[in-house]
Amino acid sequence: MVANIRWILVRRRVSTGVRHLIALAGALAMVLPLLWMISASLQTMEQVVRYPPAWIPNPFAWENYPTALTFLPFGLYFRNTLYVTAVVIVGDLISNVLAAYGFSRYRFPAKDLLFAVLLSTLMMPGIVRLIPTYLLFNQLHWINTFAPLMVPSFFGSPFYLFLLRQFFLGIPDDLTDAARIDGCSELGILWRVVLPLAKPALATVAIFSFQASWNDFMGPMIFLTDERLRTVALGLHSFQGLPYMSALYNQLMAASTVMVLPVLLVFALFQRHFVQGVTLTGIRG
Amino acid sequence: MLGMMRLVTPRQGGNRSLERREALYGFLFIAPALLGMLIFNLGPIIAALFISFTRYSILTTPKWTGVANYQKAFSESLVSLSFANTAYYTVISVPLGIGLAFAVALLLNRIKGAYIYRTAFYVPAVVPSVASAVIWLVMLNPNIGLVNYFISLFGIKGPGWLISPDWATPGLILMSLWGIGTGMVLYLAGLQGVPEHLYEAAEIDGASPLRRFWAITVPMMTPTLFFHLVLGLIASFQVFNAPFIMTKGGPVKSTYFVSLLIYDNAFRYFKMGYASAIAWILFVLVLVLTIIVLKTSSSWVYYESGTRGRF
């Protein structure tokens, strides 16, 4: 009996150990490409092509960064991206907060149907919309301006709408009713009662919105051809497309690192919100 | 009954103006989102259908050509090739991605330090797609890339990946698995929601761990699996950034996916009508697939009483 229990305990400990070993190996495999990106960004080209691959730069080729970032005007690309991203975050927040509030707090005809139709657009392949949207922006003379990237964010996005509505539904009606009896206006209730309680959801939307806008490639590529309007994503793509790039892998990795770092930083600071957003809605933006 | 209704009517009249005001406010709040749906979503999809029946190069006015674009699409071999390539990519990458994400979630569920592992598995999912394309371009380099280096540790010579017609799509699939973190978080959340008492009851009844997995964990997770499958299919049929940046559809069109075909026709050859027709064929295909998955879901997706999916 005693031997039996000991056997079970040993087996359990071994299986836990094996689980940790597999998890560790998997986790390492996942972060290795990022670690290598950073390492290669600091290596000389001589070291990058050496076999087996080196992990610690020797010597540290810090000059890769200034060389890569001035080869193409990445400073300008950063300013463009920051501008577009900031406006998109504001637009996403305003339009989706309003719509989510409307859907969670008011009764009106065809409400459920409208919400279902809005959500179903999430399931429609975006590529089908691409050509008419391009033609529309072309008609408006918006090609080669940031408007095609920014304006749609002021007209709602089903994913963020869904996320915020889920959250608003969890705020008790009593609170808003009480404010209404106290003579608070409808927008006042939203601003003073609902939004302060919804800060985590707002943060989640802002973070996803930042990430989506920062990472967007297809939009800028189709709507912007002027080199001075390039975003970082476009800049990195054209940098990669330069001839002889295979001789500049270290600089390519330096430019990639600079594009990835802000996202990683936001992720490190707000990891909780990323996870919450994914679990609350089941989708990523 | 009638008397009661009469009694109630006057009050209802008072309520009706309130109701009307409430509806007005509701519509005002959702107006921007509704407009957005019409202008940027449903409108363009309908417009694409119209454009697909025309010849249109932006510079000239659209000319109605009936089903000519569709006839051309169904007869051109590049179109069927791109659909076949996309199907190949989807059939492998979607189940593999779901399986791996689920396996990792099971591995990390209730393990000490799960938080740290979870972070490591999720981090690649937030990396911008252009950056991951650039990183994997080097990772999959047959000579200096890490992938072939690790394969060589087992004494095997790695394939040519993106420069080999047979290995380019597997290379892209391998890269797509780097992004399983989102699915993993989804499954981890789902696993937390499986009530502990079910496992306890099964254990008392003498069910083996394997039996508990198939009889409790899997059925309880089917709504999440189903959800992931639908969204995974839709995303996979439109995969664009990675092939566009890394292989440009090559070598020898082996990674020429439908999204690249649509892009080339629309924005390189300015055949807006033809590109719209292909886009609509893709749309119908994805729609039919989604409906098939939805229809079959009742036989394999388990919903607890009262809960019905996420939507």
Question: How many H/I helices of chain A?
Answer: 14
Sheet bearing the most strands of chain B, described? 2 strands, antiparallel
Mean residue pLDDT of chain A: 90
Helix share bin of chain A: over 70%
What's the count of strands of chain A? 0
Outline the biggest β-sheet of chain A: none
Oligomer: heterodimer
Radius of gyration over C-alpha positions of chain A, nearest whole angstrom: 25 Å
**CATH homologous superfamily of the largest domain in chain A?**
MetI-like
The top level CATH class name of the largest domain in chain B: Mainly Alpha
Give the N-to-C terminal Cα separation of chain B.
38 Å
Give me the CATH architecture of the largest domain in chain A, please: Orthogonal Bundle
* Principal-axes shape call of chain B: globular
Contiguous uncertain segments of 5+ residues of chain B = 1-13, 305-311
Mean pLDDT of chain B: 89
Q: Would you state the CATH class of the largest domain in chain A?
A: Mainly Alpha
Uncertain stretches of chain A: none
Number of domains of chain A: 2
Which superfamily, in CATH terms, is the homologous superfamily of the largest domain in chain B?
MetI-like
Fraction of residues in helix of chain B:
over 70%
